[in-house]
Amino acid sequence: MIKELVEHIERGLLPHLQIESVNPLNPVVVRRVPPSWVLLGAGNYAAVVTHPDFEEWVVKVYAPGRQGIEEEAEVYRRLGSHPAFSECLHVGERYLVLKRLRGFTFYTCLLRGIHIPKQAVTDIDAALSYARERGLHPHDVHGKNVMLEQGRGKVVDVSDFLKEDPCMMWDDVKTAYHRFYFPVFHKLPIPERLLNMIRKSYRWLGKSSRYRTGLGKAHSARENREH
Ligand SMILES: Nc1ncnc2c1ncn2[C@@H]1O[C@H](COP(=O)(O)OP(=O)(O)OP(=O)(O)O)[C@@H](O)[C@H]1O
Ligand SMILES: [Mg+2]
Domain with 128 in it: what CATH number? Predict the structure, then answer.
């Protein structure tokens, strides 16, 4: 199966998929997806697609010039098999084949008014503790990198888990969840414009607090991207 999928990717997908990182602080721009392939999402580094003949898997294709595939593959090696994480089946020159996670990112849940239960937050906490036990450092765990799948929480993007510098993002997501989301918003769709405003203010506040704590220098370009 894997041989067939890799052939499909290298002949049918990569030569025709057009993605570009226009601004490193924003998601990659996907200009063309070849027929039959379906775009599932785009982050600041990569586009993620799937094919109906191999629907249990996704292909995460890094945009030209974006680094980090080897590091992400190494994180998956260390994670092994765990219900709250994907797994890496194959590492290509500019792509990874990952197990598909179903459901919606927390970000999409907020947009659509899909209720995020406390269980999903607890699942992600447990998954991040497991990652720490494996010598990893959970990083960049924000609303587009976690998913809700049938009431359970999953971590969809582990690409920065080798970085050792501290990251408070998941703690901040949890604080927002307990203070605002659960008591006020939990069944209300939140307009994208409002979510974007929150995201940008968070980035601004994060930057200024980094300067205050002197962590500014330690943070790489990958860290400063917009979410
Ligand atoms: N294994 C998966 N199964 C299903 N969907 C996925 C999977 N991996 C990624 N996605 C979707 O694709 C989107 C982008 O993937 P991902 O977050 O890994 O990219 P990235 O460029 O590393 O992101 P970031 O900007 O956070 O670094 C995710 O937000 C999610 O919607
Ligand atoms: Mg991501």
Answer: 1.10.510
Specify the residue for token string 């989301």. 181
Q: Count of domains in the chain? A: 2
- For the stretch 107-159, pLDDT in tens is 999 999 999 999 999 999 999 999 999 999 999 999 999 999 999 999 999 99
- Residues whose CB falls within 8 Å of the CB of residue 187, separated by 6 or more in sequence, listed in order: 113, 115
195 in contact with ligand 1, CB cutoff 6 A: no
**CB distance 100 to ligand 1 below 6 Å:** yes
Q: How far from 158 is each of 98, 125, 126, 138, CA to CA, in Å?
A: 12, 14, 15, 7
Q: CB–CB of 24/225 below 8 Å?
A: yes
Residues 141 and 199 in one domain: yes
pLDDT band (50, 70, 90) for residue 5: very high
**Measured between alpha carbons, how far is residue 182 from residues 104, 113, 144, 187, 199 in Å?**
18, 12, 18, 9, 18
Whether residues 71 and 154 share a domain: the answer is no
Give the nearest ligand 1 atom to 47 CA: 14
Q: Identify the pLDDT of residue 155.
A: 98
- Ligand 1 contact, 103 CB (< 6 A): no
Domain CATH code at residue 47: 3.30.200
Distance 135 CA to ligand 2 centre (A): 21
Range of the domain at 53: 2-99
pLDDT digits (tens, 9 = 90+) for 10-43: 999 999 999 999 988 889 999 999 999 999 999 9
pLDDT band at 86 (very low <50, low <70, confident <90, very high): very high
